[in-house]
Amino acid sequence: MRKDNGQKKMWDIRSWKKVIWIVLFCMLFTATLFSLEERPVFAVSAEDQKTIICIDPGHGGDTDGATYTYDEVAVYEKDLNLQIALKLEQELQKYENLEVIMTRREDITVGLKERTQIAAEQNADYLISIHNNAAGNAELNPKGCMVLVTASHYQPLKTRVPDIYEASSQLGLSIVEKLQDLGLSLGNELGADSNFGLVRRPYSKEGGARGTYYYPDGSFSDYYALLRYGVEVGIPSIIIEHAYLSNEEDYRTYLATDEALSLLAKADAKGIAEALHLKEKPE
């Protein structure tokens, strides 16, 4: 009888140990899930309550960007970019805990690296460059919107988000969705229409470059300089190509009037706010 009681006690102890380990594991697993659900995907550091977005009106000054003539008047991309950017700044001011900085507010020349430096010096969390497109192949007369994002998963040591690649992607997808709501199609160049409106172009022969360049981790660097410089300083950077200035239908529908440009800016702002979980200021 004593032997049976001893075996029973040993069994009870082992059983209770197993139960305790199972309970502890479940508690840890539940806590982990809760923390992942509660944490915003693209939140900045905990001590920094304000998100800073740098808006970059593409081109300017000596760089006109795409230029086309409609109704005997020359239309410069640099002017359209600035108008949309200034309207976007106003739209973003409707949201809480958000600061907006600009790389230019007038028709001046700003270098590509200088634009990134402005964002970095002002501790920007995101760099959003405003552009409009021109046909790479005039015979195809392409149309529609796209967002250029990084092609690399390179993550510098000092970054404001845990994953530049993912943050850029989600920001771009959200903006494309809102532009589509206006009636814009997905751009039919550079594979945008087969990649949900996103364009990833590496600095390699596969990306159409003459040479090949790499980030420190060995991955292909980005073909577009603004994206490359942004990644190097740890800022998720995107380039929005709203519509094709080279396509008359796109121009007359989405770029020819102040009202149309305002709608583009509102779409950008809604996409940004949705991706970054921004809350509107109370009225």
Strand content range: 15-25%
Helical content (DSSP H or I, runs of 4+): 40-55%
Number of helices: 7
Strand order in the largest sheet: 4-1-5-8-6-7
The count of strands amounts to 8
Based on secondary structure, the structural category is alpha/beta
- Order of helices and strands, N to C? HEEEHEHEEHEHEHH
Mean pLDDT: 88
Shape summary:
globular
Question: In angstroms, what separates the terminal alpha carbons?
Answer: 80 Å
* Low-pLDDT ranges: 1-11, 22-47
- Rg (CA only): 25 Å
What summary fits the major beta sheet?
6 strands, mixed
Question: What does this molecule look like?
Answer:
The chain contains 7 helices and 8 strands; from the N terminus they run αβββαβαββαβαβαα. It has 283 residues and is an alpha/beta fold. The strands form 2 sheets. A 6-stranded mixed sheet has the order 4-1-5-8-6-7, with helices on both faces. The termini are far apart. Residues 1-11 and 22-47 have low confidence and may be disordered.
Features:
globular, 41% helix, alpha/beta, 283 residues, two-stranded antiparallel ribbon, six-stranded mixed β-sheet
Give the secondary structure arrangement, pairings included.
Blueprint: H1 2-38, E1 51-57, E2 67-70, E3 73-76, H2 77-92, E4 98-102, H3 112-121, E5 126-133, E6 146-149, H4 164-181, E7 198-200, H5 225-232, E8 237-244, H6 248-255, H7 258-276
Parallel strand pairs: 1-4, 1-5, 5-8, 6-7
Antiparallel strand pairs: 2-3, 6-8
